[in-house]
Design a protein that fits this description.
The structure is a single chain. The protein has twelve helices and 23 strands. The protein is of the alpha+beta class and 412 residues long. Helix 1 packs parallel to helix 9. It binds flavin-adenine dinucleotide. Pfam families: DAO. Keywords: Oxidoreductase.
Amino acid sequence: MTTSVLVLGAGMVGTCTALHLALRGHRVTLVDRKGPGQETSYGNAGIIQREAVQPYAFPREPDVLAKMLLGQGAALHYHWGALPALAPRLLRYWCNSHPERHAAATRHYARLIEHALSEHEPLIRAAGAEDLVRQVGYRVVYRDARALQQGADEARAVAQAYGLRHAVLDAQALAQAEPALRMPLAGAVHWLDPWVVSDPGELVQRYAQALERAGGVIAQGDATTLRATARGWAVRTQAGEVDAEHAVVALGPWSETLTRRFGYRLPLFVKRGYHRHYRGGEGPRIPLLDEAGGYVLAPMRRGVRLTTGAEFAFVDAPPTPVQVDRAYAQARRLFDLPEPVEAQPWMGARPCTVDMLPVIGPAPRHARLWFNFGHAHQGFTLGPVSGRLMAELIEGGPTVVDPAPYAPTRFG
Ligand SMILES: Cc1cc2nc3c(=O)[nH]c(=O)nc-3n(C[C@H](O)[C@H](O)[C@H](O)COP(=O)(O)OP(=O)(O)OC[C@H]3O[C@@H](n4cnc5c(N)ncnc54)[C@H](O)[C@@H]3O)c2cc1C
């Protein structure tokens, strides 16, 4: 039986949710205050991370923690003023990153990631977006032999446990694979399964166009105007109030602004991140994660996109892009990247949960209200499978994976 659904938030997660619902014949309105794919899903590193079976843990190694506390490096930055408010959630995140708990989270995370490519693939075809995607994987590069050995050992263990493909490159093989490298590195781990996207925001927009072709409607509006009605839910848009039987909250890093209004205190936080494009010289041929530097360089349509690690701050606090400068100082030693494209770096925020798993399922105390957010470091990867899971939950039929580990009720 068909139903009607308001999907709030047109990032990768909301757009894929709406597309799955529309392809199943439901009446869907996708609502965003901007257009589709203009926030976090626009500015990421564009890697569909099939290899990311382990969610991103809070570092526990003493040397990394010391570096963090001193505020050094490009991988991490924080706003001192935000720390007292964020501390309880970061502490829970830290506790859940204990190896045993992290292993448990990995089991559930891997079950979603397993479907990353197989769920993107039909949507890419439906959206005619093959021109944006290359099936070339990405490389993690290491500067010294010990770090390479450790990275290669870890990669081998993960690859064997989860059936992933990878190759280890020594210094010479890496220099051949990336001829624009300006200095010798110890080598790299090449993850061969991931796909890379030359314009992540454009991929979301193509999925949104596929949604419209499937009969879905895209509306501009403020999700915080959501209210319960006799029939279900209604939200104000520029085209007037739109109502439907179901509503899905997919507001990524802003999800809490709405869920709080309905009385839910979910343990969410954000890790902000920045990017800037560079052109004029020659960068890597495929995306490259500089493990020691804590940044990614990805060749994209606008130039080589440099993306940074995590910044702990309030989601809408003014930008403090110090990590971009630190990362650029390191990146330009590796590649000739002379000209920044944008006057100022772009800023986004990874929507995180304290247990490193996304929140996908029914709102505990409101009928026909659904949550789909908290995809942290891999929301671009997980949008399609999360969207499918959400559509299947709304239909009440069998689901692509067991939804229990992602249920909002797990937070009590
Ligand atoms: C630097 C960086 C690099 C990353 N690299 C990768 C990567 O390589 N691979 C990967 O898988 N993931 C990556 N990620 C993570 C990924 O980008 C996110 O997990 C993902 O984009 C989250 O998608 P989303 O749809 O949940 O949120 P968003 O894309 O942020 O979408 C939320 C939407 O809600 C809308 N919205 C907010 N408030 C309102 C309101 N009141 N009313 C109406 N609309 C509203 C916004 O306009 C926005 O469109 C990276 C993130 C960063 C920051």
